[in-house]
Specification:
It holds the Pfam family DUF1579. By secondary structure, the protein is mainly β. The protein has one domain: Calycin beta-barrel core domain (Lipocalin, Beta Barrel). The chain is 0% helix and 64% strand. The chain has no helices and ten strands. The chain has a ten-stranded antiparallel barrel. A hairpin with a 2-residue loop joins strand 3 and strand 4.
Length: 143
């Protein structure tokens, strides 16, 4: 096990262009998503800051999350904050090229391409009536 449990997350560092298809759910209509995702190390390289500048159907939304390792729970996590006042805690898993994010109301499963310059996957939204629903099919491309 590496001394710094975040070292394998180096794959994210940099800027990514994100395009997505928002699917219709009970929470809202179908649409498009365009975003710039920027990942950077905090000093000491124990935490990563992830800034998101997105547009859902031309409506701007911005968020920031901090990714790290919880030594007590022995798991990677992220805590997100957005411009609507919403915050959520996620459990993160990076297994080879597979990437997952698990939250109480949303989750993501995807994978990197062989060169780790593209990340594609599906966000799901927890619906009141139907359990987990497909929400956003997206692809991030390293700039």
């Amino acid at each position: 096990m590496p001394a710094n449990r975040m070292s394998r997350f180096e794959v994210f560092i940099g800027t990514w262009n994100t395009n997505g298809e928002v699917l219709e759910t009970e929470a809202g209509p179908a649409g498009t998503l365009y975003a710039t995702d920027t990942y950077r190390w905090l000093p000491g390289r124990h935490f990563i800051v992830h800034d998101v500048d997105a547009r859902f159907d031309n409506q701007p939304t911005r968020s920031m999350e901090v990714m790290g390792f919880d030594a007590i729970k022995q798991q990677h996590f992220a805590r997100s904050f957005d411009d609507q006042g919403t915050t959520e805690v996620f459990v993160l898993a990076l297994d080879g090229r597979r990437w997952s994010i698990e939250g109480k109301t949303v989750r993501f499963h995807g994978s990197f391409d062989a060169r780790k310059n593209r990340l594609g996957g599906l966000w799901e939204l927890k619906a009141r009536k139907a359990g987990w629903q497909p929400w956003i099919q997206l692809e991030l491309v390293r700039t």
